[in-house]
Write a structure and sequence with these properties.
- A hairpin with a 6-residue loop joins strand 5 and strand 6.
- The two termini are 53 Å apart.
- The strands form five sheets. A nine-stranded mixed sheet has the order 15-14-16-17-13-18-19-20-21, with helices on both faces.
- The longest helix has 19 residues.
- The chain has 696 residues and is of the alpha+beta class.
- The chain has four domains: 174 residues; 124 residues, no CATH class; 222 residues, Rossmann fold; 83 residues, Arc Repressor Mutant, subunit A (Orthogonal Bundle), CATH 1.10.10.
- Helix 8 packs across helix 10, helix 16 runs parallel beside helix 17 and helix 22 runs antiparallel to helix 23.
Length: 696
Amino acid sequence: MPTSVNLSPALSPLLAYRQFILYKLVPSKIEGKKDKLPVNPHTKEVCNAHDRAAWLDYDTVAGLELGNDYGIAFVFTHEDPFFFLDIDNCQNDDGSWKEIATELCTRLSGAAVEVSQSGKGLHIFGTTTPVQHGCKNKENKLELYSADRFVALTDLNTIGNAATDCTEALQKIIDDYFTKSEQNVIGWRDTHVDEANPIVSDDELIAKAMNAKSAGSVFGNKASFKDLWTNNESQLHLAYPSFKEEDPYDRSAADAALAQMLAFWTGKNHARIWNIMWQSQLVRDKWHPDNHKHYLTNTVINSVNNQVNVYGSKSVSQQSLATPILDPTDITTTSVLNKLRDLSVTRRIVEMEKNLQNDVYIFEGMALKGQITLFFAKPGTGKTLLFMHFIIDSIIKGTIKNSNLFYINADDSYKGLFTKGKMAEKHGFEMISPAESGISPGDILNMLDELSNTDDASEIIIILDTLKKFTDLMNKKNQSDFYNVLRKLVAKNATVIIAGHTNKYPDEEGNLIYEGTSDTMNDIDCAYSINLMTPSEGDVVVEFRRVKSRGDVVSTVSYGYRRVTGMSYYDIVNSVCKLNEQESSLVSEQNKIQEKLNKYESEKLFVQRILNNGPLIQSEIVKIYMLNSKDANEVHHGLACEFSKSSLLRALPLLTNIAWTATRNRDNNALTYEFLNSSLVEIQEPINNVLQPGVI
């Protein structure tokens, strides 16, 4: 069957899960039949259906035009709510369906039903909470699975809805058609596992869990323990969207999530999970055994089966207790060899090609999506307010999605954090202060590390301000560990932007030097120095100079902003504007003039003072200097004591047409210097005119 098909409404709930694979029909050893073999969409070779590297979203796999021998399959896992009931060879010779087929379809009324590949069987899809089954009834040719299987979708004559909750009906069918030996039942435990060391007091355990946050809950649409415990419907709606209009969220999914978190904290103690859950605000009638005999029991059993690590285990970093729950994508039962294959880029080429876009700038012309970009500057340059301008500007232009951006502000006062937080609130992005949240920057880094192990990292934008709060800038090992985390993030199509500082002194050519080890430049994709071209008050101009790049980013660009006494921070950010090439050249030239004036200030004042009495040739200026210098042992020393003769000779041509003029005598070729009446203020005036109010 062609893969480029639309999935019918009956099976559309499956679209929410990135668990679709490709299969190929090949001749079976049984004459007249064909086998369905899973194939890797990247290599077209037969693969393990449970190799997550071979899984794609439906739109991607459906867009692969591979011919009629290929089809689309769905892999059932412990993370999705679906079950699959296969009724084989249940059609009579006259085309009608056998009694067992009609009975099961009736008992599972509302569930999605499709005709199988052979045309003589039925597939039934629905949801159950949460039940793990691997059941067979050979006599009636029935198979029931909720995980660890894949089914070839036909989408033939589909009816119903795969989101239909069949928990109660399904349990009765299991009791009627599958013997206990055919059911995968996990034993009940009233103690914790050996490797766990849980908190003894339930109250203390709950308090500890309430203060813990997973990376998914901070940076994505996952719910925290606190959200589940308090029945925070607004967050649960985002984390567990419901297929039922009457429910604010998928209650069964929330029950399962709370149980699994408790599996971590209790050390997989079934009885204790059960008892603690009844203290939460998620409690509902469905939990009562009188109403649904097996529901809560199965929920607890499956939570324990799904959970990998436990509180108190040596394998769990005690520094990472804010991230206790492994994301389902972390759970693997594959061999080391398969794990290595999972790491291969070649297995994700199709997906990477889909994600790869034309260059998208997070900061216009500079910070590219999917890269690590460092901006470093001296204190007082205004890098944070420039960052705020770039963020808001990109949000307004639609370049970035506000809900994807997390500004980690680790270097601000309470008032400054409040001010910037109000701007973040207005424009819909997240402003996080480790100190205000009661955690350390290291805790944030642990969360980012956890986030990098999940698909939630995709499209996320992380801004770290400032770098020295997150890593020891002079410790190579510490920095290496830090950038390893960031590299894992960008490998998941996240973007990281870092604010850093400079050394106290520039290099011999006057360029800013990054504060930290030289290894940093090897670990990042792009870097810019932010150079202050004017005084830091009044009409301020800065120039961004590219230090390192990967991709099409500008080499230099200048911005101006107005900062005067009485201006609000919002008004300062709003005043930021980009300078065009002509304006940038003007500012650059003016900056060079200012640098000369600063460097030769004493020489300038000395020469101007003596030129006030009239023009002088160079030899006369030098003679006066020698008479007034310390070396001449004269009584009047003045400014001449502050510089050397060689410095004076360098200043004379450098400050020509800035502080004085110079004309050459045709008769003796001597240079005559004359006082220049124009001022620097007059030269600066055109620069001030380029700073116009912003539009943010």
